[in-house]
Design a protein that fits this description.
about 80 residues, mainly beta, five-stranded antiparallel β-sheet, about 0% helix
């Protein structure tokens, strides 16, 4: 489940849902963690470039609370519509 809202040259997004992490070893597979994951992000277009930032929070049965941050710059040669 997710949503995206256009705010001029900026876009906000968010997702929430379950996750399962498995580890494979040889011919066996073991569930390593499971829980709920929430993701929020923002993307801002600056001409032919975009800056995207995202934060992801996971609350797992084994790992408890884990928060990851990421950001990236994307340059495109496609003109905006």
């Amino acid at each position: 489940m997710g949503a995206s809202v256009g705010v001029g040259p900026a876009n906000l997004s968010g997702k929430i849902g379950p996750y399962v992490t498995c580890q494979m070893s040889g011919e066996s597979t073991k569930v390593a963690d499971y829980g709920v994951k929430d993701e929020a992000g923002v993307s801002v277009e600056l001409g032919s470039a975009a800056v995207e930032a995202k934060v992801e929070a996971r609350f797992g049965a084994e790992t408890w609370l884990t928060v990851d941050y990421s950001a990236r710059t994307k340059i495109s040669s496609t003109p905006n519509k």
